[in-house]
Amino acid sequence: xxxxxxxxxxxxxxxxxxxxxxxxxxxxxxxxxxxxxxxxxxxxxxxxxxxxxxxxxxxxxxxxxxxxxxxxxxxxxxxxxxxxxxxxxxxxxxxxxxxxxxxxxxxxxxxxxxxxxxxxxxxxxxxxxxxxxxxxxxxxxxxxxxxxxxxxxxxxxxxxxxxxxxxxxxxxxxxxxxxxxxxxxxxxxxxxxxxxxxxxxxxxxxxxxxxxxxxxxxxxxxxxxxxxxxxxxxxxxxxxxxxxxxxxxxxxxxxxxxxxxxxxxxxxxxxxxxxxxxxxxxxxxxxxxxxxxxxxxxxxxxxxxxxxxxxxxxxxxxxxxxxxxxxxxxxxxxxxxxxxxxxxxxxxxxxxxxxxxxxxxxxxxxxxxxxxxxxxxxxxxxxxxxxxxxxxxxxxxxxxxxxxxxxxxxxxxxxxxxxxxxxxxxxxxxxxxxxxxxxxxxxx
Length: 444
Prior knowledge:
The chain is mainly alpha-helical. The protein has 19 helices and 7 strands.
């Protein structure tokens, strides 16, 4: 098992007991090909398992040399099953004199958070209501059916086509929130059914890839707003975000774009282009380069269905135009909703914080209302979603008061904004980061 495999003679002694390790020893194994993690005080060599990990290659590496207990609990609804798969990777445990947590994390806070999770589980907050998700799927299919019927009966005039595009864009956005539910294993009791329906929703209803989404999105949840670990803050040098990166770029005289104007050009290259251009290319490249042929088949089924439905009315050329306009509308919706809870928050390099503290500095909530719940797919409860990613979204409101109380107890800031205020903060934060970059570029 890589370099860690060379420790085999230390795994068990003549009495058959596992070896004991210090945190100092564990933290030496953080490089690709030599990665150890700690879960519930047990030490695991995941050097080779990272290639097979369903959550992707990188996510385990993000916790190499660390205590991953909280992340392990957050991501896996069936802990007993996962522990069985982990047994062959077990190489030892922490020495009795070693603390359970690494890097001076607040043990009392972590213990209280675990108690809160147990309380929410006992109250049924992790149990899904099948009717909720059935109705959500039904309204997506209804929107698509209405759009097709409008073209069938009312023709392809400009006004009718504009309405059809809005209906299809709404259906795509809502399907995006629905696939997110299945991707987080928060609907069915078994992972198998969640994965299967996830492929159907993201593949057949949206034309995207479940594998691509899993590997990208779980990294975001594992280390939100952490440079080099969260792909969502990899702006490909088009933007500088937070307060650290702009100064770094400025000091190094990096100027791929005039970042002091990024809050202006964001409107032209951010929301309009993310899904139609960047994601579209990345999804197909990822499926082909990684051999995700099942995902590709589901994805193709979406395109076949779309063009069979609309080329008979619009022809190939105008069907392509309509398709891209729908993606254009969906992209705006997606970017504003997903970034309102993250871009204005703390964005920095790894700080090795406990789970609750790490998530709270990187996320904020938006006020609850029937519209906000629907519009954002309940991601207005971004804090609760990040703390408990397998919790069905219709239960976030039940968890929120308990989380708020725990944060107040330990002085952890729990932010909640209006929808408009959250949107405005995206632009304000980009403007602030741009100013930091300009000052460093000119004066440092």
